[in-house]
Design brief:
By secondary structure, the protein is an alpha+beta fold. A hairpin with a 7-residue loop joins β2 (189-194) and β3. It is globular and about 85 Å long.
């Protein structure tokens, strides 16, 4: 109920008495009704507003106190009512939209071929069909893997005493992996990518390898539950392929210990956030002097192959964290050959389990259930949609956007992006801790950010799509071989560009529209919002604009702010790694980020006895805090141009309060306990409840709009603010 001021009540009473006594006719009565109506909040009752209100109401727990637990207030109904399917480990707003998008892609991939379908579209559908042909997969069984294990000299745990150690050389085995379409990055990583200090050119780089499990888990060994599940997968796989049960436990525990040694040799994520400390340019000859146990020029040429490129010892390369390679020297010198071979062939087996018969797929599905807490297998069609859409992202993306993307979203998005960039500009103008020289460079970087919305127009050109996928060999009945072929093609495509100058605006870099995500690229200094995320809880042209600024607007601000978080700030306006900060300003920035680190490190899931890692999540947390603030202020500017919008039916909240409610809704989520524990311990993003609490409790406007008393959970006396 609207409370009227006393002076209005007295005036209105006199006015009514006068009207009655004088028997004034209809004109005055109309004035009275209009006068009273103007004091009522205007409610939007369009179908879009009713639908939006219903969604917010369904997700809410109106019994919760907003100033003490706004996440529960906004998302308590979601957590209570949304059921996690047996085949999934969590359910989030991102996941709900992804579910619908996957169904749309399935319909596309299962559709009858048409005359308009060119070869690439047919190949995408064939890849999907081969994945779905379970009868064919059963006939083939796991024979392709067994044949390749034999080709690679045998998996010792399977071959037992027949395995010949004298024939083993890990370097030669890596070359065989490369020739046959398997990863050669098992002991260390070899790749070709952007030179961080000269981002218009590519360079060869060496780094620590990716691990089977997060380093935080692996270094704990069998004391960790996830490592035990991983070890169980190793043993079950070896037994399924015919290993002697009596030797499996002993041999594979030694393999696990070898992988733990590799894990201990790697740098933790906390120490890999400073790109300057990781980046070590040198020649291959220099690397040979530093790490003499390998002829690095010969190795590089064998991995590249003559078909792609050849180099000499003067080739400039980047070594990221050379400490790992130094540590690896000692590990390889001391480790028995049998253990190294067992490890390398195990990784081959692990990489192929999902591409074979049901008994092989069940091994990986059981591990997934053990690690995540889900109770059923992933539906086959979902796996196959992800595989086909991932392999042919541009082709499938074209089919998706032509059928499902609302082109009207792009114009509204452009207005929001401009508004939110303007707000970050004002933030830069107003910050007191940044010196003028650094501030000028920050403004230049902000103005240089390129934005990519929806999809590039070139995606609709069939000739360009055909050229992009030229050389791929895919059929509709050999899923295992298709996957090998796709891997070979992908490596050849990307590595062949070693000597080419990089065009950061190339449409092919932004040609994956059928995903529910958004990105900031430091080396491009760009933000990208694919078509897939411009829907649902994030964006809808038929609802009030404050919901869009709170939803996709927060995401826009989040991605812009990534350019100025602890990692993004290390790159200049051209996307090059450069220390463009004044030392004193840098120190003040790091002090502000420490506040964020300390704040989020205190967040704990008490029932699981786990706390958030404030260091590894700091970039996302800085981006969240900045993004919500920028989106809120940008919407106020929008109102000054377009006027105040109507409220939503059924919700006794004003427009500003509805902004905050809508923003919190994008993080509504529910997790299985094991998945939540993993997300908290090793994730780079905080779980939804902490993203809301951390961001809103630091925002003065939120506290003001909900009248939160100082000292309440969402209005603490001490707040953190980077941007």
């Amino acid at each position: 109920m609207v409370k009227l001021p006393l002076i209005f009540i007295l005036t209105f009473s006199i006015l009514v008495e006068t009207v009655i006594s004088l028997s004034i006719e209809q004109p005055c009565q109309d004035f009275i009704e209009t006068y009273v109506e103007s004091e009522k909040p205007k409610i939007c009752n369009t179908p879009g507003c009713v639908k939006a209100a219903y969604t917010l109401l369904q997700n809410m727990d109106s019994t919760a106190e907003p100033c003490e637990d706004f996440y529960q207030y906004a998302c308590g109904g979601f957590v209570e009512k949304v059921r996690i399917p047996d085949s999934e480990s969590s359910k989030t707003q991102f996941g709900l939209i992804s579910d619908e998008l996957q169904k749309q892609l399935r319909d596309i991939l299962q559709s009858d071929d048409t005359k308009e379908d060119n070869k690439v579209f047919q190949q995408a559908k064939d890849h999907y069909k081969a994945c779905m042909d379970l009868e064919k997969l059963e006939k083939i069984g796991h024979s392709p893997l067994l044949e390749n294990l034999k080709l690679f000299g045998g998996w010792p745990v399977l071959d037992g005493d027949k395995w010949d150690e004298s024939e083993f050389d890990w370097e030669q085995l890596l070359y065989k992996f490369r020739e046959n379409g398997y990863s050669s990055d098992l002991l260390f990583d070899f790749s070709i990518g952007t030179d961080l200090m000269n981002s218009t050119w590519r360079t060869i780089s060496f780094d620590q390898p990716g691990l089977s499990l997060s380093r935080e888990y692996m270094i704990q060994g069998l004391k960790n539950e996830n490592v035990r599940h991983y070890f169980s997968l190793m043993k079950r796989t070896a037994l399924a392929f015919g290993a002697d049960p009596e030797t499996v436990e002993k041999e594979l525990e030694e393999v696990l210990n070898f992988e733990i040694k590799l894990s201990n040799a790697t740098l933790p994520k906390e120490l890999r956030r400073n790109a300057f400390k990781l980046y070590h340019p040198m020649t291959l000859a220099d690397l040979g002097h530093l790490i003499p146990w390998l002829n690095w020029t010969e190795y590089t040429n064998r991995i590249l192959t003559k078909e792609i490129a050849q180099v000499d010892s003067t080739e400039r390369v980047i070594v990221y964290g050379p400490e790992y390679l130094t540590n690896l020297t000692k590990i390889l010198a001391e480790e028995p050959k049998r253990n190294i071979a067992n490890y390398m062939l195990w990784k081959v087996a692990l990489s192929t389990l999902g591409y074979m018969d049901k008994s092989s797929r069940d091994l990986i599905e059981q591990y997934s259930r053990d690690a995540s807490g889900k109770t059923d297998d992933t539906p086959r069609w979902k796996t196959c949609v992800s595989t086909a859409a991932g392999s042919f992202s541009a082709a499938v993306g074209q089919l998706y956007v032509t059928k499902h993307f609302n082109e009207g979203a792009k114009e509204k998005m452009m207005e929001m992006v401009d508004d939110i960039k303007d707000e970050f500009k004002m933030i830069l103008d107003e910050v007191k801790w940044m010196d003028e020289g650094t501030k000028v460079k920050a403004h230049t970087k902000l103005q240089s950010i390129k934005d990519y919305i929806g999809y590039p127009q070139e995606l609709l050109n069939n000739t360009l799509i055909e050229d992009l996928y030229d050389g791929i060999e895919v059929t509709n009945n050999t899923f295992y071989q298709n996957s090998i072929n796709m891997g070979k093609w992908s490596i050849k495509y990307s590595w062949s560009k070693l000597r080419d100058q990089i065009d950061k605006t190339d449409w092919k870099r932004h040609a994956n529209p059928a995903v529910v995500n958004a990105y900031y690229s430091g080396i491009e200094n760009s933000i990208q919002f694919p078509a897939g995320i411009l829907q649902g809880i994030f964006f809808d042209k038929d609802r009030p604009t404050y919901m869009n600024y709170a939803g996709i607007g927060w995401v826009i601000g989040h991605e812009i702010t990534h350019g100025f978080d602890d990692k993004g700030r290390q790159y200049n306006q051209e996307g090059n790694l450069e220390n463009w900060w004044d030392d004193d300003t840098k120190a003040k920035f790091l002090n502000k980020t420490k506040c964020i680190i300390d704040q989020y490190s205190k967040y704990e899931v008490k029932e699981l006895d786990v706390s958030l890692n404030g260091v590894t999540t700091q970039g996302e947390n800085i981006a969240d805090n900045g993004g919500a603030k920028e989106a809120y202020k940008a919407y106020q500017k929008w109102v000054s141009r377009h006027g105040e919008e109507q409220r939503l039916p059924g919700l006794d909240l004003n427009q500003k309060q509805l902004f905050w409610l809508s923003g919190a809704n994008i993080w509504c989520s529910t997790y299985r306990p094991k998945t939540l524990k993993t997300t908290v311990q090793v994730g780079s993003h905080a779980p939804g409840m902490f993203r809301v609490q951390g961001t809103y409790s630091n925002n003065k406007e939120f506290a003001k709009d909900f009248n939160c008393p100082i000292g309440s959970t969402y209005n603490p006396e001490d707040k953190c603010e980077v941007w």
